[in-house]
Amino acid sequence: MQDATNLIKFPEYHNKINGKTVKTVNPPVYNGSTVLFENYEDFYLAHSGKYNGITYGTDRLPTQRAFEEALKKFEGGYLTRAFQSGISAITNTLLAFTKSGDHILMCENVYRPTVLFCNKILSKYNIKISFVPPDVGEDIIKYLRPDTKLIFLESPGSNTFEIQDIPAITAIAREKQIITVLDNTWATPLFLRPFELGIDVSIQSVTKYISGHSDVLLGAVTVNKRTAKIFEEFYKIMGIIASPNDCYLALRGLKTLVVRLKQHEKSALKIAKWLKTVDLIKTVIHPALLDHPQHHIWQRDFKGSSGLFSFIFKKNYSKKEMASFINSLDLFGIGYSWGGYKSLITAGRYKRSGGSQYSDKTIIRLSIGLENAVDIMEDLEKGFNALKAWGRNNFHK
Ligand SMILES: Cc1ncc(COP(=O)(O)O)c(C=O)c1O
């Protein structure tokens, strides 16, 4: 059965009113702290840790569990837990699998707050971090140390979209008992199956494509069998809990993910190819384009591409010039996050080592939404014309 069917083919949800069954397609939202026991015997079992039902709200009520179960099946993992945001899923994963004295390898193009957590928080607990090139593959071996405990990847990485050779890295890590973690938010399990490539822990910012409507902050971590025990215990002891309302919305988002993501993919590719023909633009960075530096790896490992990519202008524009372009767009919101139905734009510079072609360049990132692709291109064209007009009008100033 295909993903689109599997994601929809979940059980119906039942209740009884006046002896008649009430079946709804979607689950009820359970909000609650206290969970009432049937009787003292069950309470006694719970008190002695032998009860297999839900004992309290932090045990995750049926709504959180329904979302986790659906995502676990989609990921093909062993256990999934929901977090209150994607960054919370990331920071807690890093904490769960490391201890004082351990060393982490992290590719340098990861989401910036992931780096900040390592540099500012993990360092306080004597956990050491080294950053590796964003297109790392089997050369990861050069960076391994006897105390390396975990490798953290994000592929393609934030803003500059370099791709790592995941199977080459996981083969080496597995041999050395190193845990591999992938932030798979860009592709989602629809376009990349981390466990089939040897990854131990797969992270989603559910905020993005899975929720899809920019109205939810949620994260999720799915682990394989080998890492499940440590992770499950950590989650429980830390008292982590995601909101049932957000899990409900994320579960709803999952049902329509396939159609949405395929539309994001189609429009983004069309727009990326068109941007390559625009005279002001030097480079379009999109893994599905033939000239992307790791296109061959994308083609080998991924089943599709999503709606987020970047481009670089030929000229290094001033803040005022950039404003003339970005402020003239009508369809693009200026704002963080991505994966929702509305197109968004950001621009920034990112540190990349080793003489990267992207260092010191302003990277313009587009999250292509579900608007009509031709309308989006016309909007961008209007922005480029505004930029050219600004140049003409300010030529002598
Ligand atoms: C690649 C990636 N991972 C994780 C996150 C964090 O997700 P959240 O916004 O749900 O905390 C983001 C947010 O932009 C992201 O781009």
Give the radius of gyration. 23 Å
Q: Look at the structure and name the CATH superfamily of the largest domain.
A: Type I PLP-dependent aspartate aminotransferase-like (Major domain)
> Which strand order spans the largest sheet, edge to edge or round the barrel?
3-9-8-7-6-4-5
Class from secondary-structure proportions: alpha/beta
Low-confidence stretches: none
Number of strand segments: 14
Proportion of helical residues: 25-40%
The bound ligands are:
pyridoxal-5'-phosphate
What is the CATH architecture assignment of the largest domain? 3-Layer(aba) Sandwich
Can you summarize the main beta sheet? 7 strands, mixed
Description:
The radius of gyration is 23 Å and the shape is globular. The model has no long low-confidence stretch (mean pLDDT 96). It folds into two domains: 57-253, Type I PLP-dependent aspartate aminotransferase-like (Major domain) (Aspartate Aminotransferase, domain 2); 257-393, Aspartate Aminotransferase, domain 1. The strands form three sheets. The protein has a seven-stranded mixed beta sheet with strand order 3-9-8-7-6-4-5, with helices on both faces. Strands 10-11-14-13-12 form a five-stranded mixed beta sheet, with helices on one face. 37% of the residues lie in helices and 18% in strands. The protein is α/β, with parallel strands linked by helices and 397 residues long. The longest helix is centred in the middle third of the chain and has 32 residues, at 244-275. α9 packs across α12 (373-393) and α11 (319-326) runs antiparallel to α12. The relative contact order is 0.12. It binds pyridoxal-5'-phosphate. Pyridoxal-5'-phosphate (PLP) is lined by residues 85-87, 111, 154, 158, 183, 185, 205, 207, 217, 219, 337.
